[in-house]
C-alpha cells in the first residue's frame, strides 16, 4: 500500500533560499522536517511514500515540490540536506506539468485545488486535524492514503475548504495539538503496526 503526505507551507518561499537561514525562508525548516519524518527510517528510506510540499509564499506561488521515496537519491534526513534539494527545485523553471529536478524530486506550479484533484486520482485524501476521528478507528479501512497537514499556522480557511471538500475524513492523531512532523511520525507508527 502506498502512502503520501501533503504539507502546506503558507509562507514557504517559492524561490531559492539561503541554507544558512532555513526558518527565514517562510519556515522552510518545518517542511524539511516533515520530509524527513515522511521518508526516513533508521538506515533506510520508505520506498512506498511520496511527499508533496505546497509552497504558497512569495515571490512566485503556488509551487509544489514532490519527492518520491521510491526513486529519490542522495537525500539524507538532516534538515540542511533536505533544504538543499528544495532549494535546487525552486531554481528550476516550471509550469503545470511536473518537471524533474533530479532523481525522485519534481516541481510544478499547481493551485491547491488542481493538486488535490490530481492526487485524489491516486490516493484517498484524509485531512489531519485536531478534532477529527481517532486514527486508531480509521486505520483498518485506509487504502493508499494521502494525509494533508498544515504548517505551524495550520491550514488557512480558503485552502481548508478545498481540502474538506476532497477528503474522505478528518483524522486526529492525538488529543493534543502537535507539530506537523510529529503527526507524520504517529501516522507511520499506526500504519506500520497494522501492516508489518
Ligand atoms: C502545529 S499544527 C498547526 C497549529 C495551528 N495553530 C492551527 O491552529 O492549526 C500543524 C498541523 O499539524 C496537524 N495536527 C496537529 N495536531 C494534530 C492532531 N492532534 N491530530 C491531527 N492533526 C494534527 C494539523 O494538520 C495542523 O495543521
List strands and helices in order, with pairings.
Blueprint: E1 3-9, H1 28-39, E2 40-41, E3 44-45, E4 49-55, E5 63-68, H2 79-90, E6 99-102, E7 105-108, H3 112-119, E8 124-134, H4 135-138, E9 145-150, H5 157-166, E10 169-172, H6 180-195
Parallel strand pairs: 1-4, 1-9, 8-9, 8-10
Antiparallel strand pairs: 2-3, 4-5, 5-7, 6-7
S-adenosylmethionine binds next to strand 8, strand 9 and helix 6.
Describe the structure.
The chain has one domain: SPOUT methyltransferase, trefoil knot domain (Alpha/beta knot). The protein has helices spanning 28-39, 79-90, 112-119, 135-138, 157-166, 180-195; strands spanning 3-9, 40-41, 44-45, 49-55, 63-68, 99-102, 105-108, 124-134, 145-150, 169-172. The longest helix has 16 residues, at 180-195. Helix 1 packs parallel to helix 6 and helix 3 runs parallel beside helix 5 (157-166). The model has no long low-confidence stretch (mean pLDDT 97). With 196 residues, it is α/β, with parallel strands linked by helices. Helix content is 32%, strand content 27%. An eight-stranded mixed beta sheet has the order 6-7-5-4-1-9-8-10, with helices on both faces. A two-stranded antiparallel sheet has the order 2-3. The radius of gyration is 15 Å and the shape is globular. Bound molecules: S-adenosylmethionine (SAM). S-adenosylmethionine binds at residues 128-130, 149-150, 152-155, 172-174, 176-180, 183.
Amino acid at each position: 500500500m502506498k502512502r503520501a503526505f501533503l504539507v502546506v507551507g503558507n509562507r514557504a518561499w517559492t524561490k531559492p533560499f539561503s541554507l544558512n537561514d532555513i526558518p527565514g525562508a517562510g519556515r522552510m525548516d518545518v517542511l524539511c522536517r516533515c520530509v524527513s519524518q515522511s521518508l526516513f527510517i533508521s538506515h533506510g528510506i520508505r520506498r512506498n511514500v511520496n511527499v508533496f510540499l505546497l509552497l504558497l509564499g512569495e515571490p512566485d506561488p503556488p509551487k509544489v515540490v514532490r519527492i518520491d521515496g521510491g526513486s529519490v537519491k542522495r537525500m539524507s534526513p538532516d534538515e540542511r540536506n533536505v533544504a538543499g534539494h528544495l532549494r535546487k527545485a525552486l531554481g528550476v523553471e516550471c509550469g503545470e506539468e511536473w518537471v524533474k529536478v533530479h532523481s525522485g524530486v519534481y516541481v510544478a506550479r499547481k493551485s491547491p485545488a488542481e493538486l488535490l484533484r490530481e492526487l485524489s486520482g491516486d490516493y484517498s485524501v484524509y485531512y489531519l486535524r485536531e478534532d477529527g476521528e481517532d486514527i486508531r478507528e480509521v486505520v483498518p479501512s485506509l487504502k493508499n492514503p494521502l494525509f494533508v497537514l498544515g504548517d505551524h499556522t495550520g491550514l488557512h480557511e480558503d485552502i481548508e475548504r478545498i481540502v474538506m471538500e476532497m477528503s474522505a475524513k478528518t483524522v486526529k492523531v492525538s488529543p493534543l495539538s502537535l507539530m506537523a512532523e510529529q503527526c507524520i511520525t504517529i501516522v507511520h507508527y499506526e500504519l506500520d503496526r497494522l501492516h508489518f
